[in-house]
Amino acid sequence: DGGITQSPKYLFRKEGQNVTLSCEQNLNHDAMYWYRQDPGQGLRLIYYSQIVNDFQKGDIAEGYSVSREKKESFPLTVTSAQKNPTAFYLCASRGRVREARWAYEQYFGPGTRLTVT
Amino acid sequence: GENVEQHPSTLSVQEGDSAVIKCTYSDSASNYFPWYKQELGKRPQLIIDIRSNVGEKKDQRIAVTLNKTAKHFSLHITETQPEDSAVYFCAASMYGNKLVFGAGTILRVKS
Lengths: 117, 111
Description:
The complex is a heterodimer. Chain A contains no helices and 11 strands. Chain A is mostly beta strands. In chain A, strands 2, 4, 5, 6, 9, 10 and 11 form a 7-stranded mixed β-sheet that branches. A 4-stranded antiparallel β-sheet of chain A has the order 1-3-8-7, with no helix packed on it. In chain A, a hairpin with a 5-residue loop joins strand 4 and strand 5. Chain A is globular, with a radius of gyration of 14 Å. The relative contact order of chain A is 0.33. By secondary structure, chain B is mostly beta strands. Helix content of chain B is 0%, strand content 59%. Chain B is built from no helices and 11 strands. The chains are: A mainly beta, B mainly beta.
């Protein structure tokens, strides 16, 4: 399954609570990404990290925070400031295509479905 | 920034027919165009991709074409089967970083 794990698969929280989603990869990939998917829509980039101890905002970073203290881990915190947190959250990592210098591919984890009520 | 548009939003075909999904992108600097298949409740799976140094790529029943001048690329599935039914997403990026996705196409293959 690509060596990317996300936990838990389903998460339920009350409005006003912060919640942290886990993403771990054992592929030795430098770059990792968080996307959000809403029903019937494409994926939108929340945050990304090209290397340990560095991360950048994506298109919809408001109300989210991340850290990248280890190469293998890129947790996402959904804060109470996120107005519509209920969504399917997908973590991905980017790896080089075998024997190709500038060719990369992104692989996705299984996702976490967050419901906030 | 990059913007990707995908058409059609839904596509119904008879088993054995071909299916074509089209995407356009806005940023001429984009050089990597993957296609993902997503089944209900599951992660997107990369099914084929194309880089800007080629115009066409095939893998068994699926193929992708790229027209850099017009900034559009297409997914072609031949001899469709019921198991091809899913949501298909196109995306664009530079070197596989920061993918920008289309809105998706629901493909239904009727048997």
